[in-house]
Design a protein that fits this description.
The complex is a heterodimer of chains A (252) and B (65). Chain A has 252 residues and is an all-alpha fold. In chain A, helix 6 packs parallel to helix 8. The longest helix of chain A is centred in the last third of the chain and has 54 residues. Chain A is 77% helix and 0% strand. Chain B has one helix and five strands; from the N terminus they run E-E-E-E-E-H. In chain B, the strands form two sheets. Chain B has a three-stranded antiparallel β-sheet with strand order 3-4-5, with no helix packed on it. In chain B, a hairpin with a 3-residue loop joins strand 3 and strand 4. Classes of the chains: A mainly alpha (252), B alpha+beta (65). At the A-B interface, helix 5 of A face strand 5 of B.
Chain lengths: 252, 65
């Protein structure tokens, strides 16, 4: 579970709710028609912008924001250095029995390619293509969420305009202006909350996750190519440690 | 031109003129003048004698026994 995401969302909604309650009755902030405009409108907008399969597909990466298990780069480097030592001592084919020792699928796949005697250029090609398309898929997820983040305040604005129009139509009774105006502004509030606590932050988190996954995969690619060119395990370790910040280079 | 076998068992022919280095790591890794590395199943000695044989053959000399 990603604690930061959970704490952030609870704190966000919690603090807003607290601010509302401290200022008076929370009931004046509840308006079902407004919620329908904002939530329904945003969903409609998103369905128009993206194919249905992509929208359903975004659920996977979103779950990632909540349930991510971090891969420690330093641990990975240590594992790859171990593999390098084995390859250096007993030959690359000896890695076949050790390929199962890592639960990093990308690493297992890369080792399998190396054992199969695939040429280094081809391995690099295959792996970098896979990484490039992973980046693209993640970028799609982020763009869906960002679209949601720009649509919800916009629909909030539409709701506000609807409310204002209705209010102006009954202008002859001044006592209703206050209440009508309050309701009109609620939609903008819902839209802004939805965008700024849900869509935009989750999109940003996904971006960070993508970047760290990218780093892991690049470490793996560099490691496998280095092993395959027969580099000394110390050299392999040094090459890979260059990828991460100095403070992270020692494992526990 | 020498006949070699890749790690996966596929035989192939390598242009002996582009060999820059051959190392035993323990897999034999041939580094070419282009910087590419190829891993082969033959030992370092086997590769070097193959190159010498090839050169003798094309120079028209008699093969070493």
């Amino acid at each position: 579970m990603d604690i930061a995401t959970i704490i952030g969302i609870i704190a966000g909604f919690g603090l807003i709710f607290m601010a509302i309650v401290l200022g008076g009755s929370p009931l004046i902030f509840v308006n079902v028609p407004s919620m329908i405009i904002v939530i329904g409108g945003t969903m409609a907008g998103m369905l128009i912008s993206f194919p249905l399969s992509d929208i359903i597909g975004v659920i996977g990466p979103v779950r990632n924001a909540f349930f991510h298990t971090d891969v420690d780069p330093a641990e990975l480097i240590k594992k790859i250095t171990e593999f390098a030592t084995i390859a250096r001592r007993e030959g690359i084919l000896a890695l076949e029995s050790h390929a199962g020792e890592t639960d990093n699928e990308f690493l297992s796949k890369s080792i399998q390619l190396a054992i199969d005697g695939t040429s280094p250029e081809l391995i690099k090609d295959i792996l970098t293509t896979e990484v490039a398309f992973m980046e693209d898929r993640h970028a799609l997820g982020q763009s869906i969420l960002n679209t949601g983040g720009s649509l919800s305040p916009a629909f909030g604005m539409i709701g506000t305009l609807i409310g204002l129009v209705q209010m102006l139509a009954t202008m002859d009774d001044p006592s209703t202006i206050g209440a009508g105006m309050a309701v009109a502004l609620l939609t903008t509030l819902y839209g802004a909350i939805l965008a700024n606590i849900a869509f935009i932050p989750v999109a940003a988190k996904l971006k960070v996750r993508t970047a760290s996954e990218l780093l892991i995969k690049e470490i793996v690619i560099e490691g496998i190519l280095s092993i395959q060119s027969g580099d000394n395990p110390r050299v392999v370790e040094q090459k890979l440690k260059a990828f991460i910040a100095p403070s992270l280079r020692e494992t526990g | 031109m020498i006949h070699l076998t890749r790690l996966n068992g596929t035989p192939f022919v390598l242009n002996a003129e582009v060999i820059r280095e051959i190392e035993a790591t323990p897999d034999t890794i041939i580094t070419l003048t282009t910087g590419e590395k190829i891993v082969v199943g033959e030992s370092v000695d086997a590769v070097t004698s193959a190159v010498i044989d090839y050169k003798r053959t094309i120079m028209g000399g008699h093969r070493a026994p």
